[in-house]
Fold this sequence. Notes:
The protein is an all-beta fold. The protein has four domains: 3-71, no CATH class; 81-259, no CATH class; 265-395, Immunoglobulin-like (Sandwich), CATH 2.60.40; 404-504, Immunoglobulins (Immunoglobulin-like), CATH 2.60.40. 3% of the residues lie in helices and 46% in strands. The protein contains two helices and 37 strands. It has helices at 11-20, 243-247, and strands spanning 25-27, 35-37, 43-46, 49-54, 59-64, 68-71, 80-84, 97-103, 110-113, 143-144, 152-153, 155-158, 179-185, 195-207, 210-219, 232-240, 250-253, 257-259, 265-271, 275-276, 281-290, 296-304, 309-320, 323-325, 328-332, 335-340, 349-358, 365-377, 383-395, 404-412, 431-434, 439-441, 447-453, 456-463, 470-472, 485-490, 495-504. The strands form ten sheets. Strands 8, 9, 10, 13, 14, 15 and 16 form a seven-stranded antiparallel sheet that branches. A six-stranded mixed sheet has the order 20-29-28-22-26-25, with no helix packed on it. Strand 31 (431-434) and strand 32 (439-441) form a beta hairpin.
Amino acid sequence: MKLSQLPKPPLRTWRKWTRRMTTILLVGGMGQAPFVAIAQASEIYNRASYSYRDSDRNISLGGTSAETIIETEGLIDPLGQILGCNGDLLPNYDGFSVVLYEPDATGLDLGPLVPLTTTEFPDIENNGIPGGKLPNAENSNPFFVTNADAGQYNFLFDTTTPLASPVNAGLVQTDRDAQYILVVNPPADSDFPQRRIKLELTDSTGGVNNSVIRYTATALDGIPISTSGGSQVSETVVEIFDAETQGLNLFSLALGMVMCEPNQISITKTADRAAAQPGDTIVYRLALRNLTDIALESITVDDLLPQGFQLIPESVTGVLNDQTVEITPEASGSTITFSTTTAIPVDGTMNVLYATRVTPDALRGDGENLASVNAERSDNGFFIQDGPSIHRLVVDPGIVNDCATLIGRVFVDKNFDGEQQPGEAGIPNAVVFLDDGNRIVTDADGLFSVACMLPGVRSGVLDFSSLPGYALAPNLYFNERNSQSRMVNLAPGGMVRMNFGVTPTFQEETP
Length: 511
């Protein structure tokens, strides 16, 4: 039986065999055009082995193919590259620089600048100075990116140069666990923000013609590193096959990344009035504007309504380019989430309109409303957001009294249930301090009350220095009452009770 007549392995296995026989490594292919690192030698020798067993006929075959010689045409080193948010080249790289730092003692902020071994071009030793690699032929740090290099950069690490940061104590530049922060500085007049990427070497091995650097890259700025999305690229492998450079024990570092504008979507919130009273209806308008050069999808808006404002679900409407779009509202407490499957085109603005009803529970004063928008770019799925956009209106009392009343008592809780029963006497002259600084003293029956309090979440604390011989009574039914403080929610015009149970710490005298 000929080798060509043998049954082909499954597709997945065939792909594994194909990958094992490949001699070209794609480096930096994170959403941008990959760069190819191949052997410096002019010929590569490749040999394949095979084995086959037919269990039905108990036949075993095996062998080795003839040696194949592959001609190469020099070396293209792995390079990092700065790209736009859509994965394309930036229109202008003038003023961009890439700088390599060590982290400070926290591991998150910039420490000392990394001293790199000086090199020259072409890559030959010249008076003891090792040869470098384009575009950073002198191995400069910082390195200034140019348009001629299409935003590419590279750095070379030295296997003998020690690091200075406390987080890199005792390590040289290529040691495992060495940490760096790669910084991309845009021009002063650029709309792009500075980028900071933390690099941690997870492995570095090999020698001449066989060197590997593995590192984990994490974005400290929260912006995705590559066009594939995500703020972390784990276990990135940079393999270098470069006899001349590796003979000098210099390792090449490359990381492709994208630069995204900070403002890609905007949200503006307005209302049809500046003041309202309980019982009024307020119409809000959310304007969502696309500031990118690509359509935005998966639009969601989180809108935090003021206390006492109630959404009218049937009022929710979406408008895009004078066309009605479907908006789905979902309420969770005072937070309303609006979502739509309709994309916002380039330079488009989607308006979300809805109405709320002001209930008597609304807090008087400023009705502050906060709204934030989230979306995804349609080209690479990047998550973008804006907000919160804040709208404030004045909530007038109207004809409804917004004063609330607080009542309470301090008593001897004999059965530890937190409630006063017959035979459980009140404690006079007990002091309760309220969160606004008011000092309240109980009457002869242990009762106290405060009229016309401002509504909202209020708290009170029992002062045990006014109760010598007493301690807090344990509550067998409510754990939150096993504290000398109490918290209540006062609604406008409402009444709330705040009780404190105590127990004597002295022994009663026996007759």
